[in-house]
């Protein structure tokens, strides 16, 4: 089973985000970067498929600046076989369409049965790239997947996906793009031997001209701002439960007017 | 020809409230641009919905029906919507950032060669350019987004835009369309739709959320509170509660869960990690019930109750029942 995993590097969820003085972006000094948590589910699932079929390959595909190679190495330490790193200033901070175009161009040269993406990245929160990649490759998308069963002949897959307040089970021909959702699996940690081995695994670096494409931005993101600081409101301490309940419920109706 | 087109989502035989939010916003944009507002409806039995949409300012309701469009399918619906956009040539296309919207909007946009200004919480125009304001990093910051091509496609977060009635005569236009079945797609084998009327977290007006302080999977007290509020309320959970297996992952509020924007967020036994505070910080009103007076959630709460949730919530439910019955 050959899987291609699209991986993004994002600021750790503990990061206190600050907007820079001219509002052109966030302050990146001192940020610790990690693999996008939803992409970790993808790496884990791809490894499990390779283990189940006792054959195949897990390729990590990633677009971004030099520091990204740490994230690729982490995935290799988890057990992935090789990495493809598209590093080009033209797309290192691209919008979802340009990102999907770049991934599609790179994916066209990689032999795989299934493509994984995280259902969204926890930095820009667009939640678009997976579906766009599928459309550009003219293959099906199955988004928000929590369970995957690949048929023995590797020609089709049955997936469970989250829908509003429920579940949908779909059957799709392969290849397709699957976007991973929490609940799919519990990602493994990289072992020490894994980390040693990862150092020797190949990571191929590519530019847009290697991929033979040029891109044109579709979205511009400007005027970054911080949310209005929320002040602590009233605090009720040492009151009897029934008194505090009565006070707050009445305040919700008459002051806050939300009930 | 419509300047602005909205996609109206149907669930369980009803137009979703978020579609009326889009119509109300679309009306304002169409008026500012000096043009018509259209609405796209895809699926079976659509004509009866036209009047509902006209009430919120839609001039023309475009319908597309085909046997393959009985059940939602990302490829077929995207084909239909892209066809409708190509036929009617709107400058702006608005969709909702619902579960279906998140699946449909990017695929449709890719067919049209565009990206989506996703999950916007407000819109403004600069000339004819649509500017959407959207949260990033789960609400840790905001940014404005604009498109550099046409049509400008955006999704709006449900429950954030105001609905405003603005009745129009409303005409109906059936658009001829046949699905290209040569494109490979999936087949739906089983659809387990929640028809209880409960809304998704991202669309709920009221969220009753539980965390580590719940001490286990028994959420009866919180479910009781949610049911007092009725169908506009639903249950949320912190990452700690989800990771402990007490609640399903789809209930999780926070940076690796859902970013929510309800009118009222009631946090029970949630201390308030930075990831959780990011995810719920845009709630209009926040109530926190926690034993620990130092819990970070109290720095964000409009009403902070220091106390044992197992003693406070039952009293809260009694009071709510009494006041809502009035």
Largest sheet of chain B: 7 strands, parallel
Strand order of the largest sheet of chain B: 7-11-6-1-4-5-12
Helical segment count of chain A: 7
Mean pLDDT of chain A: 97
Describe, in short, the structure shown.
The complex is a heterodimer of chains A (259) and B (326). Chain A is of the alpha/beta class and 259 residues long.
Description of the structure:
The complex is a heterodimer of chains A (about 260) and B (about 325). Chain A is an alpha/beta fold and about 260 residues long. Chain A has 7 helices and 13 strands. Chain A is about 30% helix and about 30% strand. In chain A, helix 2 (about 70-80) crosses helix 5 (about 190-200). Chain B has about 325 residues and is of the alpha/beta class. Chain B has helices at about 15-35, 50-55, 75-90, 100-110, 220-230, 240-245, 275-280, 310-325; strands spanning about 1-5, 10, 15, 35-40, 60-65, 90-95, 115-120, 120-125, 130-135, 140-145, 150-155, 170-175, 185-190, 205-210, 235, 265-270, 285-290, 305. Chain B has a 7-stranded parallel β-sheet with strand order 7-11-6-1-4-5-12. A 5-stranded parallel β-sheet of chain B has the order 15-14-16-17-18. In chain B, helix 5 (about 220-230) runs parallel beside helix 8. Chains A and B meet through helix 3, helix 4, strand 7, strand 8 and strand 9 of A and helix 3, helix 4, strand 7, strand 9 and strand 10 of B. Strand 9 of chain A pairs antiparallel with strand 13 (about 185-190) of chain B, so a sheet runs across the interface.
């Amino acid at each position: 089973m050959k899987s291609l995993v699209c991986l993004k590097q994002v600021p750790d969820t503990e990061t206190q985000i600050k907007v820079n003085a001219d509002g052109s972006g966030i302050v990146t000094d001192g940020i610790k970067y990690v693999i996008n948590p939803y992409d970790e589910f993808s790496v884990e699932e791809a490894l499990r498929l390779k283990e189940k079929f006792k054959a195949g390959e897990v390729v990590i595909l990633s677009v971004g600046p030099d520091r990204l190679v740490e994230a690729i190495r982490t995935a290799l330490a988890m057990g992935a076989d090789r990495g493809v790193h598209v590093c080009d200033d033209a797309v290192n901070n691209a919008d979802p369409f340009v990102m999907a175009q770049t991934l599609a161009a790179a994916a066209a040269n990689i032999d795989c049965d299934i493509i994984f993406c995280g259902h969204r990245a926890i930095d820009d929160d667009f939640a678009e790239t997976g579906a766009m990649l599928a459309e550009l490759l003219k293959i099906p998308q199955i988004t928000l997947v929590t369970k995957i069963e690949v048929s023995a002949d590797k020609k089709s897959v049955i997936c469970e996906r989250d829908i509003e307040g429920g579940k949908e089970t779909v059957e799709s021909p392969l290849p397709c793009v699957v976007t991973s959702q929490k609940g799919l699996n519990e990602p493994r940690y990289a072992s020490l031997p894994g980390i040693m081995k990862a150092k020797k695994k190949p990571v191929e670096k590519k530019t847009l001209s290697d991929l033979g494409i040029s891109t044109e931005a579709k979205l511009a993101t400007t005027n970054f701002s911080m949310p209005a600081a929320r002040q602590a409101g009233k605090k009720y301490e040492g009151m009897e439960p029934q008194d505090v309940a009565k006070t707050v419920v009445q305040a919700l109706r008459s002051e806050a007017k939300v009930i | 020809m419509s300047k602005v087109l909205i996609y109206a989502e149907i669930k369980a035989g009803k137009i979703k409230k978020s579609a009326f939010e889009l119509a109300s916003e679309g009306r304002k944009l169409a008026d500012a641009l000096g043009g018509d507002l259209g609405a796209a409806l895809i699926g079976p039995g659509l004509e009866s919905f036209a009047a509902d949409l006209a009430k919120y300012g839609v001039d023309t309701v475009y319908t597309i029906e085909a046997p393959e469009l009985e059940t939602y399918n990302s490829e077929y619906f995207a084909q239909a919507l892209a066809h409708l956009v190509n036929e009617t040539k709107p400058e702006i296309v608005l969709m909702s950032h619902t579960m279906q919207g998140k699946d449909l909007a990017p695929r449709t946009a890719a067919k049209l060669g565009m990206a989506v200004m996703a999950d916007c919480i407000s819109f403004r125009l600069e000339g004819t350019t649509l500017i959407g304001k959207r949260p990033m990093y789960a609400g840790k910051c905001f940014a404005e987004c604009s498109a550099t091509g046409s049509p400008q496609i955006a999704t709006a977060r449900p429950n954030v835009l105001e609905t405003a009635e603005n009745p129009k005569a409303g005409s109906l236009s059936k658009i001829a369309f046949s699905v290209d079945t040569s494109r490979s797609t999936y087949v739906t084998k089983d659809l387990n739709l929640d028809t209880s009327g409960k809304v998704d977290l991202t669309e709920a007006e009221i969220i009753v959320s539980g965390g580590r302080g719940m001490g286990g999977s028994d959420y009866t007290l919180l479910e009781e509170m949610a049911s007092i509020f009725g169908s506009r309320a639903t249950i949320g959970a912190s990452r700690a509660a989800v990771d402990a297996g007490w609640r399903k992952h789809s209930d999780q509020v926070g940076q690796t869960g859902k970013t929510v924007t309800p009118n009222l967020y009631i946090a029970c036994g949630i201390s308030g990690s930075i990831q959780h505070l990011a995810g719920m910080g845009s709630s209009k009103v926040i109530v926190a019930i926690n034993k620990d007076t130092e819990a970070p959630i109290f720095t964000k709460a409009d009403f902070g109750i220091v106390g044992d949730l197992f003693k406070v919530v039952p009293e809260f439910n009694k009071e709510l029942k009494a006041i809502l019955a009035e």
